[in-house]
From TrEMBL:
It is found in: Mitochondrion. One of its GO terms (molecular function) is translation elongation factor activity. PROSITE patterns: G_TR_1, G_TR_2. Coiled coil: none annotated. GO terms for cellular component: mitochondrion. GTP binds at residues 105-112, 180-184, 234-237. GO terms for biological process: mitochondrial translational elongation. The gene is MEF1. It comes from Amorphotheca resinae ATCC 22711. Belongs to the TRAFAC class translation factor GTPase superfamily. Classic translation factor GTPase family. EF-G/EF-2 subfamily. Belongs to the GTP-binding elongation factor family. EF-G/EF-2 subfamily. It holds the Pfam family EFG_C. This is Elongation factor G, mitochondrial.
Length: 801
């Protein structure tokens, strides 16, 4: 068993953490109000070590003045354990019942539908409205008109609520901050930034489709930010629902140890409820909207055997990831429900395990046990390690502690333009953020006042005077960029920011009428500030405005928002692929720039070589500049200018004007003139040398390859394989289900233009596909020839003008 566990751990460690590629849609927060009641037998967990606090220890603990003094003098010397040990009862109770969670999944798995139930059952909303429902109201968290129309989540939305968990007749109130994230790959940044600041997540899977392409992306993102998760297999009412297939796929495809903690009672349209395998109780939802939970010891006879079997699998799987259960298992004893729950909690927080729950959000079944599991198994803010970098100590990492009385540290993770000005979402990692407080932006070194603090409930907000440590809120009137760290000014801390994938597609855009120019610029500025994956630049040669993003849908949504929200009609050019350029050979250069035009001349000589950098496991890396000059033939100052020249050259490659990857330039010699050399001369000389050497080094155009997943009814499989073959796609996996098949292929983005309409035609509108950037790969010779010819012609035309 131990070997088995190690093998799994090793497999996990080796699993790629993903680099670019995104997934995507809209997050929302839910937050439960911090209870001021004392902790009753609560558990706190320090960094890696388990810490359970006995009642007597809690009683002993009081606000330790000495700890606060120490924190004020030198916060970085404190360990999380020291602080947690000294937390007072009220603080400990507040944190123990606080959860910051995200809901993330593949497109259309039911995230928004499930969130709607959560809001209803916790009393945040008093009626349930469906995504694309007949009442045309739309789900609470899809507040944007476009989202409601298209039935997709585009932006993350935050909300908060209180969940009262009842266990053994005792009520415990939890405060949840919840973010509903979008599923579509084009809105991946919304998932990235939500996961960056959340402590735990609910991964939703479809009971019929199991692990899908975006589930894999979401999995990578959760690993990137070490986010523990519970899994919820939704759509148990659908034909072909099979939660155990989903469990197996989490184990195999995601390489994350998973086991069901429930089994279904009935299936498909006869799905009635679930059996809780830990307490061996049947759970049913009653009432018009499933708001009443009925629990009974009477497990239906036809489910009993399955429940016993799956309970045994749960314990055996837990024994693989938890020492305490392993011991009990080897002694052939039966663990108690409390022991099982404690083991699930430990293993989930340690990222070794995910418990799998099941239900149907649309049929109002088994959502409440999922909320109980959020409280039972996902960490509270004091159980998650959050690090900041201390600028005083060479950016040494320091642990942030979610204690209200410590100096304030928060991260601005999302910006949004609202009717009342810029809204900045902040996660408070340490200390308290108060209305009217002056906070310090670690990036700009500027102080700003916080005039208003609100808690978001989708598009509504509730003003609050202060927000405690470990919570999420939004503030008005704070000018900053996404990813900025704020402190109270006393701590020189900054937090690492989130991962922003590079755009893969771009198009030219301009307003149809010049009278709309002002609104057009306003919209561009706003979208850019809000979404770091949406980029805008003016092409220096063509003077066209170019927008770039994660996919056609991503850019289409902005064009549509411009029309609706800013009343600007625009013209767009053909979508352009974000190509890259590289070299394939080692080439030497010795280049002299020499100009004598009367007065002071220009002189710079650079000598060295260029060579390709072998692509790593994540593909082609950034280009690099190195200087190896000995003997001072080029001074430091001029070498710095050479580097600038190199960076400028890499922005617009010599071949087709796209950025350069995987290329090293080394300058190891040169010459300087007493009077004629200047920084400009060295910068220009480097650019000229780069250009010449690049062309001699067998340059290569690189094109983005997309991991493409297609799902369609089985009868269309032949048609789709035909479509993919025409596009030279490499099919890597095919899975055939009872009704639908899912096919995964690597395809160049260039070959995928127009694919959606062809897929529609080939599957009578029943096929779906999703694409995610995978890596850059050398473009075929013919395509490279065409691109180079087009680029040269465009340049020649420009010169003629
Ligand atoms: N049969 C069935 N359908 C469901 C269930 N939950 C959601 N749906 C339907 O699935 C579709 C997608 O639901 P959403 O809640 O929008 O899914 P989502 O994951 O939020 O979608 P995106 O945010 O766009 O990725 C809608 O038509 C829902 O009515 C369920 O439990 N059973």
């Amino acid at each position: 068993m131990r070997v088995h566990r190690l093998a799994r751990a090793a497999a996990l460690a080796e699993a790629p953490l993903g680099s670019l590629r995104g997934c995507a849609s809209k997050p929302r927060f839910l937050c439960l109000n911090a209870s001021s009641r004392g902790l009753v037998g609560g558990a706190g967990r320090g960094l890696g070590t388990q810490r359970y606090f006995s009642q007597s220890r809690i009683a002993r603990a009081s606000v330790a003045e000495s700890v606060l003094k120490q924190a004020a003098a030198d916060p970085s010397a404190l360990t999380q354990e020291t602080i947690i040990d000294n937390l007072d009862e009220v603080e400990r109770g507040r944190l123990a019942r606080l959860r910051n969670i995200g809901i993330a999944a593949h497109i259309d798995s039911g995230k928004t539908t499930a969130t709607e139930r959560v809001l209803f059952y916790t009393g945040r909303i008093n009626a349930i409205h469906e995504v694309r429902g007949k009442d045309a109201v739309g789900a609470k968290m899809d507040s944007m008109e476009l989202e409601r129309e298209k039935g997709i989540t585009i932006q993350s939305a935050a909300t908060f609520c209180d969940w009262v968990k009842v266990e053994n007749g005792k009520e415990e109130k939890y405060h949840l901050n919840l973010i509903d994230t979008p599923g579509h790959i084009d809105f991946t940044i919304e998932v990235e930034r939500a996961l960056r600041v959340l402590d735990g997540a609910v991964m939703i899977l479809c009971a019929v489709s199991g692990v899908q392409s975006q589930t894999i992306t979401v999995d990578r993102q959760m690993r990137r930010y070490n986010v523990p998760r519970i899994s919820f297999v939704n759509k148990m009412d659908r034909m072909g629902a099979n939660p155990f297939k989903a469990v197996e796929q989490i184990n195999q495809k995601l390489r994350l140890t998973a086991a069901a903690v429930q089994v279904p009672i009935g299936s498909e349209d006869n799905f009635q409820g679930v059996v809780d395998l830990i307490r061996m109780k049947a759970i049913y939802n009653e009432g018009p909207k499933g708001e009443i939970i009925r629990e009974t010891d009477e497990i239906p006879a036809d489910v009993k055997k399955l429940a016993e079997e799956k309970r045994a699998v749960l314990i055996e799987t837990l024994a693989d990831v938890d020492d305490e259960i392993a011991e009990i298992f080897l002694d052939e004893r039966t663990p108690t429900p409390e022991q099982i729950k404690a083991a699930i909690r430990r293993a989930t927080i340690a990222l070794k395990f995910t418990p799998v729950l099941m239900g149907s959000a649309l049929a109002d079944k088994s959502v409440q046990p999922m909320l109980d599991a959020v409280c039972d198994y996902l960490p509270n803010p004091s159980e998650v390690e959050n690090l900041a970098l201390d600028k005083r100590r060479d950016e040494a990492p320091v642990k942030l502690v979610s204690y209200n009385s410590l100096p304030f540290v928060g991260l601005a993770f999302k910006l949004e333009e609202s009717n009342y000005g810029q809204l900045t979402y902040i996660r408070v990692y340490q200390g308290t953020l108060k209305k009217g407080m002056n906070v310090f932006n670690a990036r700009t070194d500027k102080r700003v006042k916080v005039p208003r603090i609100v808690r978001m409930h989708s598009n509504e907000m509730e003003e609050v005077p202060e927000i405690g440590a470990g919570e999420i809120c939004a503030v008005f009137g704070v000018d900053c960029a996404s990813g900025d760290t704020f402190t109270d000014g006393g701590l020189p801390y900054s937090m690492s920011s989130m991962f922003v994938p590079d755009p893969v597609i771009s198009l030219s855009i301009k307003p149809k009428s010049t009278k709309d120019t002002a609104n057009f610029s306003k919209a561009m500025n706003r979208f850019q500030r809000e979404d770091p994956t949406f980029r805008v630049h003016v092409d220096a040669e063509s003077q066209e405005t170019i927008i770039s993003g994660m996919g056609e849908l991503h850019l289409d949504i902005y064009v549509e928002r411009m029309r609706r929200e800013y009343k600007v009609e625009v013209e767009t050019g053909q979508p352009q692929v974000a190509y890259r350029e590289t070299i394939t050979q080692h080439v030497k250069f010795d280049h002299t720039l020499k100009k004598q035009t009367g007065g002071a001349g220009d002189y710079a000589r650079v000598v060295g070589y260029m060579e390709p950098i072998e692509p790593g496991p994540n593909g082609y890396g950034p280009s690099k500049f190195e200087e190896q000059v000995t003997g001072g033939s080029i001074s430091e100052k001029f070498l710095f200018a050479c580097e600038k020249g190199f960076l400028a050259s890499c922005e617009k490659g010599p071949l087709i004007g796209h950025p350069v990857l995987g290329t090293t330039m080394i300058i190891n010699d040169g010459a300087t003139h007493m009077t004629d050399s200047s920084e400009m001369a060295f910068k220009n000389a480097t650019q000229q040398a780069f250009r010449k050497a690049f062309k001699e080094a067998k340059p290569q155009v690189l094109e983005p390859m997309m991991k493409t997943t297609i799902t369609a009814p089985n009868e269309f499989q032949g048609n789709i394989v035909g479509l993919l073959n025409k596009r030279n796609a490499i099919i890597s996996d095919t899975e055939i289900g009872p009704e639908d098949f899912t096919l995964t292929a690597d395809c160049s983005l260039n070959a995928m233009f127009g694919f959606s309409s062809q897929l529609r035609a080939a599957t009578q509108g029943k096929g779906e596909f999703g694409m995610e950037f995978s890596h850059y790969s050398p473009a075929p010779g013919q395509l490279q020839k065409e691109l180079v010819a087009k680029h040269e012609k465009a340049q020649a035309d420009r010169h003629k003008k």
